[in-house]
């Protein structure tokens, strides 16, 4: 029953959003966080067919695909399309090269993939055995003109539990990455300071809301895309209705 009520609430909010959008002229700058694009039986894995449908639906809905560099420029005063979506992929699974890239190329969509530094030490935290991008694949991906490689910590550790040298070692970029994604969305004030001190330009959480002109460069929000059937329509995720839904169901 609770699931049915949530679906009804999401539908009602999206209907409301579509009804008032022409007058309110909402500006939506959304960052979507995917993980594996595969048929893996994981809650965070999205099938290639669904991912392709997401991009098609966004494009048909009037959204423009932008890079994280575009989003940071927006925070610094540069314009973005009224409906802008940036695509990110956490953990650095091998299917990013074999499956994701051809679909991104089809839509000429830029993206950022956040990789871990130590695959073996990250396995426990990742909780799966899916192959990650190896060094040869990373070299090929890095050469792609629309792809940025960011850092997702050395071992995908919970940064909220670390401090001092251990924290600094976890967030230090081994290859000059511009952007950092907090593993599991976990961070502390000390972790944010450590990421800033490590020289990154921006860092990303998984707070499900939209980027605003006044958003903190080191706590930028992202919507995590999963198999959740409550919010099946990707246009819902990208719209203001998703933030309303999260606010209303936060304590349910």
UniProtKB/TrEMBL annotation:
This is NodB homology domain-containing protein. It comes from Candidatus Kaiserbacteria bacterium RIFCSPHIGHO2_02_FULL_55_25. Gene3D superfamilies: Glycoside hydrolase/deacetylase. Residues 83-252 form the NodB homology domain. It is found in: Secreted. Its main location: secreted. One of its GO terms (cellular component) is extracellular region. InterPro entries: Glyco_hydro/deAcase_b/a-brl (IPR011330), NODB_dom (IPR002509), Polysacch_Deacetylase (IPR051398). Keywords: Signal. CDD domains: CE4_NodB_like_5s_6s (cd10918). It holds the Pfam family Polysacc_deac_1. GO terms for biological process: carbohydrate metabolic process. GO terms for molecular function: hydrolase activity, acting on carbon-nitrogen (but not peptide) bonds. Signal peptide: none annotated.
């Amino acid at each position: 029953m609770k699931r049915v009520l949530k679906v009804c609430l999401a539908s009602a909010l999206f209907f409301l959003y579509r009804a008032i959008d022409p007058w309110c002229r909402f500006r939506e700058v959304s960052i979507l966080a995917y993980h594996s694009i595969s048929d893996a039986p994981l809650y965070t894995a999205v099938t290639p067919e669904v991912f392709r449908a997401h991009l098609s639906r966004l494009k048909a809905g009037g959204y423009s695909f932008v890079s994280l560099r575009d989003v940071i420029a927006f925070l610094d005063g540069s314009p973005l399309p009224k409906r802008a979506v940036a695509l990110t992929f956490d953990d650095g699974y091998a299917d990013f090269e074999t499956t994701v890239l051809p679909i991104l190329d089809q839509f000429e969509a830029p993206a950022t993939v956040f990789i871990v530094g130590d695959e073996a030490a990250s396995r426990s935290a990742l909780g799966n055995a899916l192959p990650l991008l190896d060094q040869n694949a990373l070299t090929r991906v890095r050469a792609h003109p629309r792809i940025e490689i960011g850092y997702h910590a050395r071992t995908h550790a919970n940064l909220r539990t670390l401090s001092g040298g251990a924290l600094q070692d976890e967030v230090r970029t081994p290859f000059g990455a511009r952007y950092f994604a907090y593993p599991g969305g976990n961070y502390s004030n000390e972790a944010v300071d450590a990421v800033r001190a490590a020289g990154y330009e921006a860092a990303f959480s998984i707070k499900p809301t939209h980027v605003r002109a006044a958003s903190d460069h080191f706590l930028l929000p992202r919507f995590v895309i999963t198999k959740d059937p409550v919010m099946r329509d990707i246009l819902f995720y990208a719209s203001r209705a998703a933030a309303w839904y999260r606010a209303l169901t936060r304590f349910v």
